[in-house]
Amino acid sequence: MKSKLFAISTFTLVGLYALLSIIILGVCLFTGISMIYGLLASIIILIIQFLIAPWLTDLSMKWFYKAKFGAEIPNYLNDFVDGICTKYNMKKPQFAIIDDGAPNAFTYGRTKNDARIVLTRGIFELLDEEEIKAVVGHELGHVVHYDMLFMTVAQLVPLILYFVYQVLMDTNDSKSSSNNDNGGYAQLIGVVAYILYIISQYIILWLSRTREYYADEFSGEETQNPNALANALVKIGFGLTVNSNSNDENKDKKNKVRSTKNVGALGIFDSKTSKSLIVSSNNDVNDKTSIKNAMKWEMWNPWAIIYQLNSTHPLISKRLLAISSKSKDYGQEPYIVFDLEKKESYVDDFLIELLIKYLPSFWFLIAAILCVAFFNADNEKYAFMSAGICGIIGTIFLIIRYKRSHKKGYNPRTIKDLLGEVKVSGVTSVPCILEGNVIGKGDPGCIFNEDFTLKDSTGIIFLDYNQPLWILNKVFALFKSHQYIDKRIKVKGWYRRSPVPYVEIYEWEVDGKKKKVYTYLINMIFYFLLIGIFIFLICLGI
Questions:
Q1: What is the three-class DSSP state of 108?
Q2: Taking each helix axis from N to C terminus, what angle separates 347-376 and 380-405, rounded to the nearest 10 degrees?
Q3: How far apart, in whole angstroms, are the C-alpha atoms of residue 172 and residue 252?
Q4: What pLDDT does residue 28 have?
Q5: Minimal CA–CA distance to 292: which of 342, 326, 322, 336?
Q6: In 10 A of CB 44, how many CB atoms?
Q7: What per-residue confidence (pLDDT) applies to 428?
């Protein structure tokens, strides 16, 4: 497995640097422009960033996330980590714990001998021991595979390509073609460099997603229990609160109590108060209906493909299926077999949403082009009229798009129920009412984050709190957001996926008091003011 990943990564890096070499060679042969100092500066900056980034991230974790480094981890996890470190001849990673009920885990560092693994309190509350080991095994997979080093080396290629593009375009602007015979070559190579810059970005994203699959595979190999990682992904990625021991209720309770006591050893919170935060559910993990329903959006909605292309991580559904294909190697039944029948095509909805998403920008672009063209022709009358008419059309489509993403008709829903919706995206919303407990921040532990994580009896979901002004969000995050942690709230808002499932808050009720987010109202007022401005422009042209 490790040798195969190394071969894939090496081949990808060789390909990227081959493209870069061709561009550099073209610059030298056809333009005569010396970029050696700029290239060296770019490389030096990246090396410095690579060397100091872990230290800067440490400071960020301590100052802005209140992470506790050197925290004690449970014995079962400590033994598991020690075993892997001995096996792969590496230093034990530093562990940091963020005191937040929202589940999250990640790793960073330079090499396998200076890695850090960060876990939130929610990981210990939401997952059982086997699932926690599986998640940490995944993070250790990144460390053992030198993912941080490989991705840093890969990131140098688009950095240099973009630098080449900027230099060549600036050179072409400063020297006319008549004074520089190579000006045409410089511009052409600059355009090619920019195209390769975009392509290289997507290659790096693909490499990142590939390495995620191998980290999953590493976790399954080291734990001999890939289904535990799958179960953890369902809980963390989808937010479904499935029980891994639901066939034995007493065993389930025993595992939960034992897990809570182990977390108490971390010294971050009182294990007695934590018991009320532990996710409970009557969902049977052997009944995969809820999981398949949650997978439908990623398997069927065309937006999922676009989102994944622009993501460093594969879709959860793809990872679950990949893990399931390995389950039999460890004597387990495949975790999930997605056998739901797709009864309709969602391409038509996708195309409509695509139009709705980009039509406003199209009409505003037309307005700008016509306005410039008529002004250059000294025809102010038509410039004002064309800008006004196209601007009104663009604003109408803007309102249509906004209304589609902020629909009316709020009905009580559960998180599990919402996750089964397929006709939803960043453009199309499902109005809903949710009730549950706030268990943490949207960005777990971050003092500047104004968003929340909500848990009801069926799962957890991200809540997007967004007032009209950015500064209002940050003031709320710093001085008020902590007041709502562990509170029971009733939320009215809009459920969307892009690709993470989330609910934008419109109104919420806490301690019997209703509070409202005014972004919707302010945006609608702004759109109608915009129409008024465009009408005024038309009047100027009449």
A1: strand
A2: 160
A3: 69
A4: 65
A5: 336
A6: 10
A7: 96
Taking only the tens place, the pLDDT of each residue in 189-233 is: 888 888 989 999 999 999 999 999 999 999 999 999 999 999 999
Q: Which two tokens stand for residue 250?
A: 């007493």
Segment 325-378, tens digit of pLDDT: 999 999 999 999 999 999 899 999 999 999 999 999 999 999 999 988 988 888
Return d(Cα 255, Cα 234) in angstroms, integer: 19
Judged by average pLDDT, the poorest of 110-124, 277-291, 349-363 is: 277-291
Q: Which fold has domain 411-511?
A: OB fold (Dihydrolipoamide Acetyltransferase, E2P) (2.40.50)
**Longest Cα–Cα distance in the chain:** 85
Please report the DSSP string for 185-219 in residue order.
Answer: HHHHHHHHHHHHHHHHHHHHHHHHHHHHHHHHHHH
pLDDT, position 376: 86
Positions marked catalytic: 139
Residue 419 neighbours by CB distance under 10 Å: 24
Cα end-to-end span (Å), the chain: 72
Peptide bond into 431 cis (omega under 30): no
Are the CB atoms for 102 and 441 separated by under 8 Å? yes
Q: Tell me the residue type at 164.
A: V
Looking at this protein, which amino acid is placed at residue 141? Answer: G
Instruction: Report pLDDT for 381.
Output: 87
Cα separation, 361 vs 168, whole angstroms: 29
**CB contact set of 403 (below 8 Å; sequence gap of 6+):** none
Contacts with 299 (C-beta within 8 Å, 6 or more apart), sequence order: 317, 338, 340
SS3 content of the chain, % helix, strand, coil (to 5): 60, 10, 25
Which pTM value belongs to this model? 0.84
Q: Which residue has the higher pLDDT, 259 or 376?
A: 376
Q: Give domain limits for the chain.
A: 236-330, 347-405+527-541, 411-511
